């Protein structure tokens, strides 16, 4: 979704690129530490005198400014993350994104959203037409060589879930000396197309915007799907369908996030789940620590429309290079339910740490607030290691009451496409194995000499 506000019609991506983060931080009270680099260096060190907070600022080749705090793995991101953290805006909601845009518009001296709420906005159909026009170069899927090289069969591509959901796009360089046909997957939200996942043998990029857009398979409006399958890439969806086809083509819907979920993609997925009310949700992320982390992220946030028991509180799951943090915010202090939540995770820490010595990296629980505070926060920190994450995955499903409606399908290989190709190789070897000639009758019988 292009988050635009007022007359400027600007995307939040524009703020990330066009606002000089060093100058912005100076306005926010930081100063450049010249001892470690000037404002014209590739890496600029900024310090907030009152707190001692130190941020390292750089500008990427894409033009986007980013920062990180060498003392805090979670204190990093773009100008959007800085503003959201400072003002406590909730980026899991559209209101939070709008508040960030208003704050930055005010910094730039532009009109904010609130000053223009009475202006007539373009209709959803007009917005959709603009997005489609932006990507008009989509072509019907005729060149399937890339997909076939990944083991995807023509009958899979022509099946109900994937018809008109995958396209070709021809790229020609300015000198007209290079031409390639890409395979593209549209990323859409409720209002239409935002961007494309562009793939070929040596290329895997997103063109346009991802934000709250996801790639989805077809849905039969007369027969809602019984199952929703959530995975990282559209190739994984095609591979899983080929390996484990549903009983009827319309019974399963596929959703791909095109990599790491953004702040707003879970909102789109939740709206789809709430509208379609599937009997079951299947998480099919990769068989690696990041894939397991994504599973816990979904287990912490999803609210299935059909569940036999009450769903536990929504949580947030964050990850750095070596650590994973689970947060449950806004719990009312002192209530029997909150006390039960605390006991659950106190026992959970013992389960997470089972088999690890005291001097090893271990999970720990912190209860923030309580006492005179009306609000309690639970914070669980644990190493970002496979054994811890798998245990957390199971505990999160149990804690939120999702074990009967949300399942996890983990590929044996790294991802579902690797498993598909491995399965095809094994089938080919079995076909190429020479047949075993039957032995003559009686050859295996043992003959004993007569006495």
Notes on the protein architecture:
The chain is of the alpha+beta class and 451 residues long. Helices cover 31% and strands 23% of the residues. The protein has three domains: 6-116; 136-312 and 400-430, no CATH class; 316-384. The protein has helices at 12-18, 21-27, 79-87, 94-108, 124-134, 145-149, 154-157, 234-243, 265-276, 289-301, 336-352, 386-399, 416-432, and strands at residues 31-32, 43-47, 54-59, 65-69, 72-77, 167-172, 179-189, 192-200, 203-208, 215-216, 227-231, 252-256, 280-283, 316-319, 323-332, 364-369, 375-383, 406-408. A five-stranded antiparallel beta sheet has the order 1-2-3-4-5. It has a five-stranded mixed beta sheet with strand order 10-12-11-13-18. The chain has a four-stranded antiparallel beta sheet with strand order 6-7-8-9, with helices on one face.
Attribute tags:
disordered N terminus, 451 residues, alpha+beta, Toprim domain-containing protein, five-stranded mixed β-sheet
β-strand percent reads: 15-25%
User: Tell me, what's the shape?
Assistant: globular
Chain-averaged pLDDT: 84
Number of helices: 13
Q: What is the spatial order of strands in the main beta sheet? A: 1-2-3-4-5
- Supply the helix-strand structural class: alpha+beta
- How far is the N terminus from the C terminus? 93 Å
Number of strands: 18
Main beta sheet strand tally, sense and closure: 5 strands, antiparallel
Write down the domain tally.
3
Rounded to an integer, what's the Rg over CA atoms? 26 Å
Q: What's the helical proportion of residues? A: 25-40%
Sequence stretches where pLDDT stays below 50 over 5 or more residues? 1-9, 113-121
């Amino acid at each position: 979704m292009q988050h635009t506000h007022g007359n400027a019609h600007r995307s939040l991506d524009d703020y990330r690129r066009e606002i000089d983060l060093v100058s912005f931080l100076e306005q926010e009270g930081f100063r450049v530490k010249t001892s470690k680099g000037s404002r014209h260096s590739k890496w600029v060190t900024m310090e907030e005198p009152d707190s001692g907070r130190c941020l390292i600022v750089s500008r990427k080749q894409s033009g986007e400014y980013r920062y990180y705090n060498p003392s805090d793995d979670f204190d990093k991101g773009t100008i959007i993350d800085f503003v959201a953290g400072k003002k406590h805006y909730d980026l899991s909601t559209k209101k939070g994104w709008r508040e960030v845009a208003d704050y930055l518009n005010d910094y730039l001296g532009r009109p904010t959203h609130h000053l223009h709420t009475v202006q007539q906005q373009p209709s959803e159909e007009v917005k959709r037409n603009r997005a489609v026009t932006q990507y008009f170069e989509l072509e019907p899927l005729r060149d399937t060589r890339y997909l076939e090289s990944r083991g995807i069969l023509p009958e899979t591509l022509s099946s109900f879930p994937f018809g008109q959901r995958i396209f070709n796009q021809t790229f020609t360089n300015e000198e007209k000396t290079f031409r390639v046909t890409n395979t593209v997957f549209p990323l859409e939200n409720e209002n239409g197309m935002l961007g494309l996942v562009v793939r070929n043998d040596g290329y895997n990029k997103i063109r346009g915007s991802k934000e709250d857009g996801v790639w989805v398979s077809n849905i039969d409006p007369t027969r809602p799907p019984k199952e929703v399958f959530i995975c990282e890439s559209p190739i994984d969806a095609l591979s899983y369908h080929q390996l484990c086809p549903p009983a009827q083509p319309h019974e399963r819907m596929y959703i791909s996030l095109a990599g790491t979920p953004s702040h707003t993609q879970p909102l789109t997925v939740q709206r789809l789940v709430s509208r379609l009310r599937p009997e079951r949700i299947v998480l099919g992320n990769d068989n690696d620590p990041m894939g397991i982390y994504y599973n816990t992220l979904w287990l912490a946030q999803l609210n299935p429309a059909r569940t036999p028991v009450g769903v536990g509180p929504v949580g947030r799951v964050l990850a750095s290079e070596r650590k994973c943090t689970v947060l449950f915010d806004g719990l009312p202090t002192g209530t029997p339910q909150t006390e039960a939540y605390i006991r659950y995770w106190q026992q959970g820490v013992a389960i997470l740490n089972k088999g690890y010595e005291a001097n090893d990296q271990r999970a720990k629980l912190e209860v923030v607030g309580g006492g005179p505070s009306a609000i309690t926060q639970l914070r669980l920190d644990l190493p970002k290691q496979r054994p811890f994450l798998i245990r957390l995955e199971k505990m999160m499903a149990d804690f939120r009451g999702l074990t009967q409606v949300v399942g996890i399908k983990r590929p044996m290989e790294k991802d579902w496409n690797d498993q598909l190709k491995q399965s095809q190789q094994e089938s080919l070897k079995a076909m190429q194995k020479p047949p075993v000639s039957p032995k003559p009758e009686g050859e295996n019988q043992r003959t004993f000499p007569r006495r």
